[in-house]
Amino acid sequence: MKFKTQHLATAAVAFAASLAALPAHAGKTLDAVKARGQVVCGVNTGLAGFSAADASGKWTGLDVDVCRAIAAAVLSDPEKVKYVPLNAQQRFTALQSGEVDILSRNTTFTLTRDASLGLLQTAVTYYDGQGFMVPVKSKIKSAKQLKGQTVCVQSGTTTEKNLTDFSKANNLAIKPVVFEKVEAATGAYLSGRCIAYTTDASGLASIRNKEAKDPSEHIILPELISKEPLGPMVRRGDDEWFAISKWVVYGLIEAEEYGITAANADQLKASSTDPVVMRILGGGNEDSGKLLGLDKDWMLRAVKATGNYGEIFERNVGPKSALALPRGLNNQWTKGGLQYAFPIR
Q1: Is 132 exposed, middle or buried (0-12, 13-18, 19+ CB in 10 A)?
Q2: What share of the chain is helix, strand, coil (3-state, %, to 5)?
Q3: What is the rounded distance in angstroms from the CA atom of residue 28 to the CA atom of residue 241?
Q4: Sorting pLDDT into bands at 50, 70 and 90, what band is 19?
Q5: Distance (Å, whole) CA 342 – CA 345
Q6: Is residue 95 a contact partner of residue 42, using CB atoms and an 8 Å limit?
Q7: Alpha-carbon distance 181 to 271, whole Å?
Q8: What would the pLDDT profile of 210-226 be if each residue is shown by its tens digit?
Q9: Residue 200 C-beta-side C-alpha neighbours within 13 Å
Q10: Three-state secondary structure call for residue 269
Q11: Whether 152 contacts 177, CB under 8 Å
């Protein structure tokens, strides 16, 4: 009996090990993406630095680059993306219904969204917090000075709920002026209908830069009243697509940590002896892609298409961009930030 028990235990371990070594099944979303030849990506209707289309219809931004990196990893071409602009009310329904494959639209991860929408939160691409913008001429220097004041806000967002919580907690009796579309909310603020506008701090910087006639006439107040970890979401029920979406983001973050850039990725694949670099880029005999249902060059293509996370950040929202946002919390963990990629190994 003892021998039989040991034999069964050994067989079970061997079977589990064999399963772990198997490549992932492609999954229904990946199969659909490959058959279609496109990743369908839900994005903001227009938020400079994150997802916005120019006059020729070309989409750019941090959230857009996430979709481009995934398309490069999966379809070998970062341009094989169809962008579907969605407002705050449309975004979750579009993903739930299968209208889009991934929602990459400055969306906050929360318990309610994770547990009740039938969706999965992937990896944080931008750590943000909700703030307030006011006209300089208002002479308001702190959010605590908004007592009894009107504040423009978009409905169907964590922003609206956070504003209510902040007002109650500080006995401010703030008067929300709620709009369904972000364009209506920002237009109302800029026309003077509200004394303040509230959204994520990154969004405030984008709106001030893009929409205000004179950005210097508006100030973003110093307080942040919430935590807003932003990132892509996918549907529940397709573990393979969830893994691909998550690990592309982690790969971009880890690529920055190990000095892999769009410019040097090919050279490092051919010459690096660093085991981590080789795993990320598929150097030598390393092949992390098979565990995701992809080939060994999946991350090589992603990094070459968009650059690493730091390159994406700097190009779209960083200090040298139009938004001029500091890295802050979005710096690497080795530099005092929160960006800490799960290891590709």
Answers
A1: buried
A2: 45, 15, 40
A3: 8
A4: very low
A5: 9
A6: yes
A7: 51
A8: 899 999 999 999 999 99
A9: 23
A10: helix
A11: yes
Would you give the distance in Å from CA 292 to the centre of its chain? 20
Token pair of 343 as six digits = 């290891």
Mean pLDDT of the chain: 93
Collapse the DSSP code of 235 into the 3-class scheme (helix H, G, I; strand E, B; otherwise coil) and give the result.
strand
Among positive and negative, which fits the CA dihedral 65, 69, 75, 78? positive
Residue 67's φ and ψ, nearest 5 degrees, are -65, -35
Report residue 179 as tokens.
Answer: 């709009």
Q: Measuring CA to CA, how many Å separate 132 from each of 141, 163, 170, 238, 287?
A: 10, 10, 15, 38, 47
Residue 158's CB is within 10 A of a number of other CB atoms, namely: 21
How far apart CA 213 and CA 326 sit, in angstroms, is: 23
What are the pLDDT digits (tens) for 226-246? 999 999 999 999 999 999 999
Q: Examine the pLDDT at 9 and tell me if it is beyond 50.
A: no
Strands 218-220 and 130-135 come out as: antiparallel
Per the DSSP assignment, residues forming a β-bridge with 177 are: 152
Distance of CA 65 to the CA centre of its chain: 9
More confident of the two residues 157 and 251: 251
Structure tokens at 177: 């002026």
pTM (predicted TM-score): 0.89
Structural contact between residues 284 and 274, judged by C-beta atoms closer than 8 angstroms = no
* Separation of alpha carbons 144 and 124, rounded Å: 29
Q: What secondary structure letter does DSSP report for 328?
A: G
Structure tokens at 49: 């630095």
Please say whether the beta carbons of 130 and 225 come within 8 A.
Answer: yes
Residue with tokens 């405030």: 204
